[in-house]
Please model this.
Amino acid sequence: MKRILSAVVLMLALAARMVWAAPPETISIQGVMKDASGQAVTGTHNIVLKIFNLSGTQLASETHNGVSFTDGFFSVVLGSVSNPLSGLAFDEPYEVEISINGVPLSPKLALTAAPYSLNMRGISRFNGSLHFKGTKHLIVDNDYGLFSLNSAGNALDAGVDSELDGRLSLWATGKHVVEINGASMSMTVNGSVNLTGLKMSTGAANGYVLTSDASGAASWQPASGSSPWSVSGGTIYYNGGKVGIGTATPAPGGGTGRLHVSGGHILVDNDFGFLMLNSAGNHGAGMDSDANNNLSLLAGGAERMVVTNDGRVGIGTTSNPTGDVSVRIARNGHVVVNSDFGFFAANASGGLLAGIDAESGNLNLWAQGGVHAQVTTSGIASVSSRKWKKNIRPIENALGLVRKLQGVRYNWKQNDRRDIGLIAEEVAEVLPEVVEYEANGVDVFGLRYANLTAVLVEAVKEQQKQIEAQQAALDKQSALIAQQQAALEAVMKRIAALEKDGGQKMAVLKDQEIGTSR
Model:
Protein backbone atom coordinates (compact mmCIF):
# COMPACT_ATOMS: atom_id res chain seq x y z
CA MET A 1 0.00 0.00 0.00
CA LYS A 2 1.24 3.52 -0.78
CA ARG A 3 2.31 5.71 2.13
CA ILE A 4 -0.59 7.67 3.60
CA LEU A 5 -0.21 11.45 3.58
CA SER A 6 -3.35 12.43 5.43
CA ALA A 7 -4.43 14.24 8.58
CA VAL A 8 -6.96 12.28 10.60
CA VAL A 9 -9.41 14.42 12.60
CA LEU A 10 -11.10 12.83 15.62
CA MET A 11 -14.76 13.77 15.94
CA LEU A 12 -15.72 12.73 19.48
CA ALA A 13 -19.41 12.03 19.81
CA LEU A 14 -19.65 12.53 23.56
CA ALA A 15 -21.82 15.56 24.25
CA ALA A 16 -22.17 17.37 27.56
CA ARG A 17 -25.64 15.86 28.05
CA MET A 18 -23.98 12.54 28.92
CA VAL A 19 -23.89 13.85 32.52
CA TRP A 20 -27.68 13.52 32.63
CA ALA A 21 -28.08 10.12 30.95
CA ALA A 22 -26.24 6.88 30.37
CA PRO A 23 -23.39 7.87 27.98
CA PRO A 24 -22.75 6.25 24.62
CA GLU A 25 -19.33 4.68 25.26
CA THR A 26 -18.13 5.38 21.74
CA ILE A 27 -15.77 7.74 19.92
CA SER A 28 -16.52 8.85 16.36
CA ILE A 29 -13.38 8.99 14.19
CA GLN A 30 -13.38 10.67 10.78
CA GLY A 31 -10.59 11.59 8.42
CA VAL A 32 -9.31 12.01 4.86
CA MET A 33 -6.79 9.62 3.31
CA LYS A 34 -4.61 10.46 0.32
CA ASP A 35 -1.89 8.50 -1.41
CA ALA A 36 1.68 9.68 -1.96
CA SER A 37 0.69 11.62 -5.09
CA GLY A 38 -2.01 13.51 -3.19
CA GLN A 39 -4.91 11.63 -4.76
CA ALA A 40 -7.88 10.81 -2.58
CA VAL A 41 -8.20 7.08 -1.84
CA THR A 42 -11.48 5.34 -2.64
CA GLY A 43 -12.95 1.86 -2.24
CA THR A 44 -13.21 -0.26 0.90
CA HIS A 45 -10.40 -0.77 3.37
CA ASN A 46 -9.87 -2.46 6.76
CA ILE A 47 -9.23 -0.19 9.75
CA VAL A 48 -7.88 -1.24 13.17
CA LEU A 49 -8.19 1.23 16.06
CA LYS A 50 -5.96 0.76 19.14
CA ILE A 51 -5.78 2.78 22.37
CA PHE A 52 -2.46 3.12 24.26
CA ASN A 53 -1.38 4.94 27.39
CA LEU A 54 1.70 7.16 27.27
CA SER A 55 3.85 4.25 28.48
CA GLY A 56 3.09 2.44 25.22
CA THR A 57 0.87 -0.22 26.77
CA GLN A 58 -2.02 -1.26 24.53
CA LEU A 59 -5.29 -1.02 26.47
CA ALA A 60 -8.00 -1.67 23.86
CA SER A 61 -8.41 -2.63 20.21
CA GLU A 62 -11.24 -2.86 17.68
CA THR A 63 -11.29 -3.93 14.01
CA HIS A 64 -13.58 -2.41 11.34
CA ASN A 65 -13.54 -4.40 8.10
CA GLY A 66 -14.76 -3.08 4.75
CA VAL A 67 -14.89 0.64 5.62
CA SER A 68 -15.95 2.77 2.63
CA PHE A 69 -13.69 5.61 1.49
CA THR A 70 -15.36 8.30 -0.69
CA ASP A 71 -13.01 10.90 -2.17
CA GLY A 72 -10.63 9.96 0.63
CA PHE A 73 -13.20 10.56 3.37
CA PHE A 74 -13.92 7.78 5.92
CA SER A 75 -15.83 7.57 9.18
CA VAL A 76 -15.83 4.86 11.89
CA VAL A 77 -17.18 4.69 15.44
CA LEU A 78 -14.81 3.19 18.03
CA GLY A 79 -16.93 1.10 20.37
CA SER A 80 -19.60 0.14 17.83
CA VAL A 81 -18.19 -3.37 17.27
CA SER A 82 -16.91 -4.81 20.57
CA ASN A 83 -17.36 -2.02 23.17
CA PRO A 84 -13.61 -1.81 24.06
CA LEU A 85 -14.05 1.45 26.01
CA SER A 86 -16.13 -0.07 28.81
CA GLY A 87 -13.06 -1.21 30.76
CA LEU A 88 -11.11 2.06 30.52
CA ALA A 89 -11.09 4.47 33.47
CA PHE A 90 -10.16 7.56 31.38
CA ASP A 91 -8.10 8.80 34.33
CA GLU A 92 -4.83 9.19 32.40
CA PRO A 93 -3.80 10.47 28.93
CA TYR A 94 -4.60 8.07 26.05
CA GLU A 95 -3.53 7.91 22.40
CA VAL A 96 -5.27 6.32 19.40
CA GLU A 97 -3.35 4.44 16.73
CA ILE A 98 -5.09 4.02 13.36
CA SER A 99 -3.97 1.20 11.06
CA ILE A 100 -5.33 0.99 7.48
CA ASN A 101 -4.96 -2.35 5.76
CA GLY A 102 -2.37 -3.37 8.38
CA VAL A 103 -0.26 -0.19 8.06
CA PRO A 104 -0.26 1.94 11.26
CA LEU A 105 -0.38 5.72 10.78
CA SER A 106 2.15 7.78 12.68
CA PRO A 107 2.08 9.58 14.99
CA LYS A 108 -0.63 8.33 17.32
CA LEU A 109 -3.43 10.82 18.01
CA ALA A 110 -3.94 12.08 21.56
CA LEU A 111 -7.48 11.96 22.94
CA THR A 112 -8.71 15.39 23.99
CA ALA A 113 -11.22 16.49 26.61
CA ALA A 114 -14.47 15.02 25.30
CA PRO A 115 -13.64 11.29 25.68
CA TYR A 116 -12.67 11.83 29.31
CA SER A 117 -16.29 12.56 30.12
CA LEU A 118 -16.51 8.76 30.19
CA ASN A 119 -15.09 9.13 33.69
CA MET A 120 -18.56 10.49 34.63
CA ARG A 121 -20.43 7.50 33.23
CA GLY A 122 -21.62 6.48 36.74
CA ILE A 123 -23.95 9.51 36.96
CA SER A 124 -27.56 9.69 35.81
CA ARG A 125 -30.55 12.02 36.55
CA PHE A 126 -33.42 11.43 39.00
CA ASN A 127 -36.09 14.10 39.61
CA GLY A 128 -33.63 16.98 39.40
CA SER A 129 -31.17 15.38 41.88
CA LEU A 130 -27.87 13.71 41.06
CA HIS A 131 -27.79 9.93 41.45
CA PHE A 132 -24.23 8.56 41.77
CA LYS A 133 -23.05 5.01 41.04
CA GLY A 134 -19.64 3.79 42.17
CA THR A 135 -17.11 5.77 44.21
CA LYS A 136 -17.97 9.37 43.19
CA HIS A 137 -18.03 12.54 45.27
CA LEU A 138 -20.03 15.74 45.08
CA ILE A 139 -19.37 19.11 46.74
CA VAL A 140 -22.14 21.69 46.62
CA ASP A 141 -22.97 24.90 48.54
CA ASN A 142 -25.75 25.70 51.02
CA ASP A 143 -28.60 23.24 51.53
CA TYR A 144 -27.94 19.83 49.97
CA GLY A 145 -28.63 16.14 50.32
CA LEU A 146 -27.04 12.86 49.23
CA PHE A 147 -29.40 9.88 49.17
CA SER A 148 -29.77 6.32 48.01
CA LEU A 149 -33.05 5.25 46.44
CA ASN A 150 -35.38 2.47 47.46
CA SER A 151 -35.60 -0.74 45.43
CA ALA A 152 -38.34 0.74 43.24
CA GLY A 153 -36.15 3.76 42.47
CA ASN A 154 -38.93 6.25 43.13
CA ALA A 155 -38.31 7.40 46.74
CA LEU A 156 -35.46 8.42 49.05
CA ASP A 157 -34.21 5.57 51.21
CA ALA A 158 -31.08 6.52 53.17
CA GLY A 159 -28.66 9.44 53.13
CA VAL A 160 -27.66 12.78 54.61
CA ASP A 161 -28.82 16.33 54.13
CA SER A 162 -28.15 19.72 55.70
CA GLU A 163 -30.20 22.71 56.66
CA LEU A 164 -29.32 26.33 56.03
CA ASP A 165 -28.55 26.77 59.77
CA GLY A 166 -25.82 24.12 59.52
CA ARG A 167 -27.69 21.20 61.09
CA LEU A 168 -26.87 17.79 59.58
CA SER A 169 -29.52 15.08 59.37
CA LEU A 170 -29.11 11.34 58.82
CA TRP A 171 -31.91 9.39 57.11
CA ALA A 172 -32.64 5.66 57.05
CA THR A 173 -35.54 3.76 55.41
CA GLY A 174 -37.03 7.13 54.45
CA LYS A 175 -37.10 8.43 58.04
CA HIS A 176 -35.28 11.26 59.83
CA VAL A 177 -33.21 9.31 62.40
CA VAL A 178 -30.33 11.51 63.68
CA GLU A 179 -29.81 15.26 63.82
CA ILE A 180 -26.42 16.79 64.61
CA ASN A 181 -26.35 20.44 65.74
CA GLY A 182 -22.92 22.01 65.53
CA ALA A 183 -23.99 25.21 67.28
CA SER A 184 -25.08 23.44 70.47
CA MET A 185 -22.59 20.55 70.09
CA SER A 186 -25.46 18.09 70.47
CA MET A 187 -26.91 15.09 68.70
CA THR A 188 -30.56 14.03 68.74
CA VAL A 189 -31.49 10.41 68.00
CA ASN A 190 -35.09 9.60 67.16
CA GLY A 191 -35.09 6.05 68.54
CA SER A 192 -32.87 3.74 70.60
CA VAL A 193 -29.06 3.56 70.48
CA ASN A 194 -27.15 0.24 70.37
CA LEU A 195 -23.49 0.62 71.37
CA THR A 196 -20.59 -1.83 71.29
CA GLY A 197 -18.43 0.54 73.30
CA LEU A 198 -18.68 3.79 75.28
CA LYS A 199 -16.08 6.25 76.45
CA MET A 200 -16.82 9.29 78.63
CA SER A 201 -13.53 10.73 79.82
CA THR A 202 -14.98 13.59 81.91
CA GLY A 203 -15.27 12.58 85.57
CA ALA A 204 -14.05 9.02 84.93
CA ALA A 205 -11.99 7.14 87.54
CA ASN A 206 -11.05 3.54 88.31
CA GLY A 207 -13.98 1.60 89.76
CA TYR A 208 -16.58 4.30 88.94
CA VAL A 209 -19.94 3.38 87.43
CA LEU A 210 -22.12 5.33 84.99
CA THR A 211 -25.33 6.72 86.55
CA SER A 212 -27.97 9.25 85.53
CA ASP A 213 -30.04 11.91 87.28
CA ALA A 214 -33.80 12.49 86.99
CA SER A 215 -33.39 14.40 83.73
CA GLY A 216 -31.42 11.54 82.16
CA ALA A 217 -28.02 13.28 82.28
CA ALA A 218 -25.30 10.65 82.73
CA SER A 219 -22.13 10.95 84.78
CA TRP A 220 -19.47 8.77 86.40
CA GLN A 221 -19.98 8.13 90.13
CA PRO A 222 -18.23 5.96 92.74
CA ALA A 223 -19.70 2.46 92.98
CA SER A 224 -21.91 1.85 96.02
CA GLY A 225 -22.04 -1.33 98.11
CA SER A 226 -19.31 -3.94 98.87
CA SER A 227 -17.46 -6.09 96.35
CA PRO A 228 -15.00 -9.02 96.72
CA TRP A 229 -12.83 -7.32 94.10
CA SER A 230 -10.13 -4.87 95.06
CA VAL A 231 -8.76 -2.10 92.81
CA SER A 232 -5.22 -0.80 93.01
CA GLY A 233 -4.29 1.62 90.24
CA GLY A 234 -4.76 -0.29 87.01
CA THR A 235 -4.99 -3.68 88.80
CA ILE A 236 -8.16 -5.47 89.93
CA TYR A 237 -7.76 -8.61 92.02
CA TYR A 238 -9.62 -11.17 94.15
CA ASN A 239 -7.68 -13.00 96.83
CA GLY A 240 -10.13 -15.65 97.98
CA GLY A 241 -12.52 -18.23 96.56
CA LYS A 242 -13.11 -19.28 92.98
CA VAL A 243 -14.32 -17.41 89.92
CA GLY A 244 -16.98 -18.88 87.66
CA ILE A 245 -17.84 -17.51 84.21
CA GLY A 246 -20.94 -19.11 82.78
CA THR A 247 -21.35 -21.28 85.87
CA ALA A 248 -22.47 -20.67 89.46
CA THR A 249 -20.44 -23.65 90.75
CA PRO A 250 -16.84 -23.14 89.62
CA ALA A 251 -14.47 -26.15 89.85
CA PRO A 252 -17.15 -28.63 91.04
CA GLY A 253 -16.30 -31.82 92.87
CA GLY A 254 -13.66 -30.23 95.06
CA GLY A 255 -11.46 -29.20 92.13
CA THR A 256 -8.54 -26.93 92.86
CA GLY A 257 -9.02 -24.63 89.84
CA ARG A 258 -9.55 -20.96 90.65
CA LEU A 259 -11.07 -19.93 87.26
CA HIS A 260 -13.81 -21.99 85.62
CA VAL A 261 -15.20 -20.99 82.21
CA SER A 262 -18.27 -22.92 81.05
CA GLY A 263 -20.04 -22.90 77.68
CA GLY A 264 -17.62 -20.68 75.79
CA HIS A 265 -14.03 -19.74 75.03
CA ILE A 266 -11.39 -17.56 76.64
CA LEU A 267 -10.51 -14.99 73.98
CA VAL A 268 -7.61 -12.55 74.26
CA ASP A 269 -5.99 -10.24 71.70
CA ASN A 270 -2.47 -10.25 70.25
CA ASP A 271 0.29 -11.86 72.31
CA PHE A 272 -1.06 -14.06 75.11
CA GLY A 273 -0.02 -16.90 77.35
CA PHE A 274 -1.28 -19.38 79.91
CA LEU A 275 1.79 -20.13 81.98
CA MET A 276 2.73 -21.76 85.26
CA LEU A 277 5.27 -19.84 87.30
CA ASN A 278 8.08 -21.53 89.16
CA SER A 279 9.10 -20.67 92.72
CA ALA A 280 11.24 -17.78 91.46
CA GLY A 281 8.25 -16.28 89.61
CA ASN A 282 9.61 -17.13 86.16
CA HIS A 283 7.78 -18.94 83.39
CA GLY A 284 7.86 -22.69 83.97
CA ALA A 285 5.43 -24.52 81.71
CA GLY A 286 2.40 -23.59 79.62
CA MET A 287 1.60 -22.14 76.24
CA ASP A 288 1.63 -18.73 74.65
CA SER A 289 1.34 -17.03 71.27
CA ASP A 290 3.32 -14.28 69.61
CA ALA A 291 2.36 -11.31 67.44
CA ASN A 292 2.60 -13.52 64.34
CA ASN A 293 -0.11 -15.88 65.68
CA ASN A 294 2.34 -18.74 66.27
CA LEU A 295 1.49 -21.04 69.21
CA SER A 296 4.30 -22.24 71.48
CA LEU A 297 4.37 -24.92 74.18
CA LEU A 298 6.82 -24.29 77.01
CA ALA A 299 8.43 -26.66 79.48
CA GLY A 300 11.28 -25.97 81.85
CA GLY A 301 11.01 -22.28 81.03
CA ALA A 302 11.83 -22.72 77.30
CA GLU A 303 9.96 -23.30 74.06
CA ARG A 304 9.82 -27.00 73.21
CA MET A 305 7.21 -27.08 70.45
CA VAL A 306 5.70 -24.53 68.04
CA VAL A 307 2.70 -24.54 65.70
CA THR A 308 3.16 -21.79 63.11
CA ASN A 309 0.38 -19.68 61.63
CA ASP A 310 0.59 -21.64 58.35
CA GLY A 311 0.15 -25.04 60.05
CA ARG A 312 3.76 -26.22 60.35
CA VAL A 313 4.83 -28.01 63.53
CA GLY A 314 8.29 -27.81 65.05
CA ILE A 315 9.42 -30.18 67.80
CA GLY A 316 12.81 -29.36 69.25
CA THR A 317 13.25 -26.71 66.53
CA THR A 318 11.01 -23.74 67.13
CA SER A 319 12.74 -20.94 65.21
CA ASN A 320 11.53 -21.83 61.71
CA PRO A 321 10.19 -25.32 60.97
CA THR A 322 11.15 -26.13 57.37
CA GLY A 323 8.46 -28.75 56.73
CA ASP A 324 4.89 -29.46 57.73
CA VAL A 325 6.37 -31.33 60.69
CA SER A 326 10.02 -30.66 61.61
CA VAL A 327 11.57 -32.70 64.41
CA ARG A 328 15.01 -31.90 65.80
CA ILE A 329 16.32 -34.57 68.15
CA ALA A 330 18.62 -33.14 70.79
CA ARG A 331 21.18 -34.90 73.00
CA ASN A 332 21.52 -37.93 70.67
CA GLY A 333 17.90 -38.87 71.38
CA HIS A 334 15.43 -40.90 69.36
CA VAL A 335 11.85 -40.74 68.17
CA VAL A 336 10.25 -43.79 69.77
CA VAL A 337 6.76 -45.08 68.93
CA ASN A 338 5.03 -48.30 69.85
CA SER A 339 3.94 -51.20 67.60
CA ASP A 340 3.29 -50.58 63.92
CA PHE A 341 4.11 -47.02 62.81
CA GLY A 342 4.85 -45.00 59.71
CA PHE A 343 5.95 -41.65 58.39
CA PHE A 344 4.23 -40.95 55.07
CA ALA A 345 3.40 -38.38 52.45
CA ALA A 346 -0.24 -38.76 51.37
CA ASN A 347 -1.94 -38.01 48.05
CA ALA A 348 -4.95 -35.70 47.67
CA SER A 349 -7.33 -38.55 48.59
CA GLY A 350 -5.49 -39.33 51.80
CA GLY A 351 -3.87 -42.51 50.47
CA LEU A 352 -0.28 -43.38 51.39
CA LEU A 353 2.12 -42.20 48.71
CA ALA A 354 5.73 -42.39 49.91
CA GLY A 355 7.44 -42.92 53.24
CA ILE A 356 8.57 -45.61 55.71
CA ASP A 357 6.84 -47.90 58.16
CA ALA A 358 7.73 -50.79 60.44
CA GLU A 359 6.31 -54.31 60.25
CA SER A 360 7.31 -57.21 62.49
CA GLY A 361 10.65 -55.56 63.22
CA ASN A 362 11.42 -54.90 59.56
CA LEU A 363 11.48 -51.47 57.89
CA ASN A 364 9.43 -50.99 54.70
CA LEU A 365 10.29 -48.32 52.14
CA TRP A 366 7.28 -46.99 50.21
CA ALA A 367 7.11 -45.18 46.86
CA GLN A 368 4.16 -44.47 44.55
CA GLY A 369 1.72 -46.05 47.00
CA GLY A 370 3.43 -49.40 47.54
CA VAL A 371 6.35 -51.13 49.33
CA HIS A 372 9.39 -51.28 47.03
CA ALA A 373 12.08 -52.38 49.49
CA GLN A 374 12.40 -53.92 52.94
CA VAL A 375 15.26 -53.59 55.40
CA THR A 376 15.73 -56.72 57.51
CA THR A 377 18.48 -58.06 59.75
CA SER A 378 19.79 -59.90 56.69
CA GLY A 379 20.05 -56.81 54.51
CA ILE A 380 17.95 -54.82 52.04
CA ALA A 381 15.47 -56.75 49.91
CA SER A 382 13.86 -55.19 46.83
CA VAL A 383 10.34 -56.19 45.86
CA SER A 384 10.79 -58.90 43.20
CA SER A 385 8.06 -61.54 43.57
CA ARG A 386 6.49 -62.96 40.42
CA LYS A 387 3.04 -62.02 41.80
CA TRP A 388 3.82 -58.32 41.30
CA LYS A 389 5.03 -58.69 37.69
CA LYS A 390 3.61 -59.17 34.20
CA ASN A 391 4.93 -59.37 30.63
CA ILE A 392 7.90 -61.43 31.89
CA ARG A 393 10.41 -62.20 29.09
CA PRO A 394 14.15 -62.95 28.84
CA ILE A 395 16.75 -60.24 28.33
CA GLU A 396 18.20 -60.75 24.86
CA ASN A 397 21.66 -59.74 23.67
CA ALA A 398 22.67 -58.97 27.25
CA LEU A 399 26.35 -59.24 26.41
CA GLY A 400 25.91 -56.72 23.61
CA LEU A 401 24.15 -54.36 26.03
CA VAL A 402 26.97 -54.66 28.56
CA ARG A 403 29.57 -53.96 25.87
CA LYS A 404 27.78 -50.66 25.15
CA LEU A 405 28.12 -49.48 28.78
CA GLN A 406 31.15 -47.47 29.85
CA GLY A 407 32.39 -47.55 33.44
CA VAL A 408 34.07 -44.32 34.51
CA ARG A 409 36.09 -42.78 37.31
CA TYR A 410 34.91 -39.35 38.48
CA ASN A 411 34.79 -36.80 41.33
CA TRP A 412 31.60 -35.51 42.94
CA LYS A 413 31.07 -31.77 42.48
CA GLN A 414 29.70 -31.36 46.00
CA ASN A 415 32.75 -32.52 47.94
CA ASP A 416 35.31 -33.56 45.27
CA ARG A 417 35.16 -37.17 46.53
CA ARG A 418 36.52 -39.71 44.05
CA ASP A 419 34.17 -42.46 42.92
CA ILE A 420 33.47 -44.95 40.14
CA GLY A 421 30.24 -45.79 38.36
CA LEU A 422 28.22 -45.15 35.23
CA ILE A 423 26.81 -41.99 33.64
CA ALA A 424 23.02 -42.19 33.84
CA GLU A 425 22.44 -40.27 30.58
CA GLU A 426 24.64 -42.80 28.72
CA VAL A 427 22.88 -45.75 30.35
CA ALA A 428 19.49 -44.29 29.36
CA GLU A 429 20.42 -44.82 25.69
CA VAL A 430 21.08 -48.54 26.33
CA LEU A 431 18.95 -49.59 29.33
CA PRO A 432 16.28 -46.92 29.98
CA GLU A 433 14.50 -49.29 32.40
CA VAL A 434 17.14 -48.72 35.12
CA VAL A 435 17.22 -44.92 34.81
CA GLU A 436 15.20 -42.62 37.10
CA TYR A 437 14.08 -39.16 35.96
CA GLU A 438 13.22 -35.96 37.78
CA ALA A 439 9.60 -34.84 38.19
CA ASN A 440 9.56 -33.19 34.75
CA GLY A 441 10.11 -36.60 33.14
CA VAL A 442 12.96 -35.23 31.01
CA ASP A 443 16.03 -34.63 33.16
CA VAL A 444 17.88 -37.76 34.32
CA PHE A 445 18.21 -38.17 38.10
CA GLY A 446 20.01 -41.47 38.76
CA LEU A 447 20.36 -45.23 38.25
CA ARG A 448 19.02 -48.32 39.96
CA TYR A 449 22.38 -50.14 39.99
CA ALA A 450 20.90 -53.26 41.57
CA ASN A 451 18.74 -53.88 38.49
CA LEU A 452 21.88 -54.07 36.34
CA THR A 453 22.51 -57.46 38.03
CA ALA A 454 19.87 -59.09 35.80
CA VAL A 455 21.67 -57.84 32.68
CA LEU A 456 25.06 -58.98 34.02
CA VAL A 457 23.64 -62.46 34.84
CA GLU A 458 22.35 -62.91 31.29
CA ALA A 459 25.57 -61.47 29.85
CA VAL A 460 27.65 -64.01 31.86
CA LYS A 461 25.37 -66.81 30.63
CA GLU A 462 25.78 -65.67 27.03
CA GLN A 463 29.53 -65.39 27.48
CA GLN A 464 29.65 -68.86 29.09
CA LYS A 465 27.87 -70.33 26.07
CA GLN A 466 30.50 -68.74 23.86
CA ILE A 467 33.28 -70.13 26.06
CA GLU A 468 31.73 -73.59 26.04
CA ALA A 469 31.32 -73.49 22.26
CA GLN A 470 34.93 -72.40 21.85
CA GLN A 471 36.07 -75.15 24.25
CA ALA A 472 34.14 -77.77 22.27
CA ALA A 473 35.81 -76.55 19.07
CA LEU A 474 39.21 -76.70 20.74
CA ASP A 475 38.51 -80.22 22.01
CA LYS A 476 37.50 -81.31 18.51
CA GLN A 477 40.62 -79.75 17.00
CA SER A 478 42.78 -81.41 19.66
CA ALA A 479 41.26 -84.81 18.86
CA LEU A 480 41.81 -84.25 15.15
CA ILE A 481 45.40 -83.20 15.75
CA ALA A 482 45.94 -86.32 17.87
CA GLN A 483 44.55 -88.50 15.07
CA GLN A 484 46.71 -86.73 12.54
CA GLN A 485 49.75 -87.11 14.80
CA ALA A 486 49.14 -90.87 15.15
CA ALA A 487 48.69 -91.24 11.39
CA LEU A 488 51.87 -89.28 10.80
CA GLU A 489 53.80 -91.46 13.21
CA ALA A 490 52.51 -94.60 11.44
CA VAL A 491 53.59 -93.21 8.09
CA MET A 492 57.02 -92.36 9.47
CA LYS A 493 57.38 -95.92 10.77
CA ARG A 494 56.45 -97.34 7.40
CA ILE A 495 58.93 -95.05 5.69
CA ALA A 496 61.62 -96.13 8.12
CA ALA A 497 60.80 -99.79 7.49
CA LEU A 498 60.83 -99.31 3.75
CA GLU A 499 64.12 -97.48 3.97
CA LYS A 500 65.59 -100.36 5.96
CA ASP A 501 64.23 -103.05 3.65
CA GLY A 502 65.31 -101.12 0.58
CA GLY A 503 68.85 -100.76 1.90
CA GLN A 504 69.19 -104.47 2.35
CA LYS A 505 67.93 -105.15 -1.13
CA MET A 506 70.35 -102.62 -2.57
CA ALA A 507 73.24 -104.31 -0.82
CA VAL A 508 72.30 -107.73 -2.30
CA LEU A 509 71.98 -106.29 -5.76
CA LYS A 510 75.33 -104.59 -5.42
CA ASP A 511 76.96 -107.84 -4.35
CA GLN A 512 75.38 -109.62 -7.29
CA GLU A 513 76.73 -107.02 -9.67
CA ILE A 514 80.28 -107.46 -8.32
CA GLY A 515 80.13 -111.25 -8.71
CA THR A 516 78.98 -111.06 -12.26
CA SER A 517 81.81 -108.77 -13.18
CA ARG A 518 84.32 -111.33 -12.09
